[in-house]
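re: ur question from earlier - yeah i can do the single chain one, its not a big deal. heres the input i used so u can compare w yours
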Amino acid sequence: MAKIAFILLCHKDPEAIIQQAERLTAVGDCMAIHFDASASPAAYKQIRAALDDNPNVTFAKRRVRCGWGEWSLVKATLEAIKAAVDDFPRATHFYMLSGDCMPIKSVKYAHEFLDDTDVDYIESHDFFESNWIKTGMKDDRLIYRHYFNERDQKKRFYAAFEFQKRFNLTREIPADLQMMIGSQWWCLRRRTIEWILDFCKSRKDVLRFFRTTWIPDETFFQTLVRHLVPEPEIDNRTLTFLMFTDYGMPVTFHNDHFDLLLSQGFLFARKISPDALELRERLGELYASDRTDFQTSDEGIPLFKFLSGKGRVGRRYAPRFWERDASLGREREILVITCKKWHVAKRLLARITDAEDLHGIEYLFDEDHTILPDLGNIESSLDKRNRHRRALLRLIYDHYETNRLIICLDPSNIDLMRDLFADGSTGQLLEIECRFEDDYLLGHAKRVGLAGEMTPEDTIARLLPTLRQNFLFESDQIKAQEFPNAYRLSEDQNAPENIAALAAFLTVSEDKAREILAIDYLFVD
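and the output i got, formated as tokens:
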């Protein structure tokens, strides 16, 4: 009879982790937990206190500081696997789970399912030939070395990437490996797991390669299983049911999805909403039952595509995320820097994010080539960003796991400012006023196509005052809105006035604001 060792990587919500471990081990299975070394020590102590006496629960002997997209996630997984292999010698299968996964079949059904066919369940497609990667980096994940975390050290990540591209500093992929890619939610047999651990001991060159690969949890196990296991013993799919919206974000399941989930030909489902308490309770009871009479129709994915494709509010699904609760959230704070001279705002933003624990995004609703994280294609064009702007911002908050964000907007974007400051979130506005010399106005006119090298002097003479007046009009429009928590930093104000304005905008001390503004080139064109 199959015995499952669940591999759980987690970093928060200790109560949910304890409940999940107790639920899954109460019926005879076991679990190895890796709790992020950078997460709350108090939360880890709480988990250990609750589960240390459970003989079916073990913990990774070494804890790793994890970062999304890094090798650290694979390293943490390997640490949990080693603990499971050592402490659970009777485990036959090793199943990778996340904290928001729940069973959608009974344990009896799951064990019989795994006993029926002697295969590994892992999604793995040819890295270069398949279209598994929809957006963002593809070949660049492998052929360049990625030393920095894209979320936490964005500037260094892209600077190192661009440096390698510029000087063609590519590297060779290990010659004997066919690179594969797929979902990280796998279920592998004990023999396969032991082969992987032995491979890691003997092939340090492969580990060195993956240590600087971008998002290796989607390639490492997928590649090694294909390298080590005969193809007939691999079922190219995951046993965890998950769906994605048309913008590439995971669908979250709620209380009214119980029947739908049970009808899917999978053993677990992801993501179950933390607020779906009734669903979680029913699925927990289901797992402990002896029920095996599941009728699977696998309607989930086509049904979701139909409902979301129609763009209407479905009866069995929540509304699309930009239709439901179209708010950033009352607990969130949006800080907006608006300035016509984009380079000035960008300089100040860089100074702020270097000095403060803040994530900042440059002119994301105005500039097509703004650097943004991969958010499932909603960030791919200005048209999409502006069409679903609150949804985009909510995804950015979630991506950075923060409730405080600073962005830059062009002063002409007055409608968006109204929209943001009418939201339930907390809003702060900093307008930067600059002088507009004729040389700058002429350069701006050429950049936006209002003038060219052959434009007559008398036309330019009429154009420049009009541009200057238009910029002043935009500033007057902002002032007329009388936004709450609005501050002004000006090229014509003295240093103490600017320091006071920035300190109030950021809610920092004037000493900190003085440090941020301690540059003599802020307003230089």
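Residues 338 and 367 are 13 Å apart (CA to CA). not sure if urs matches, ping me
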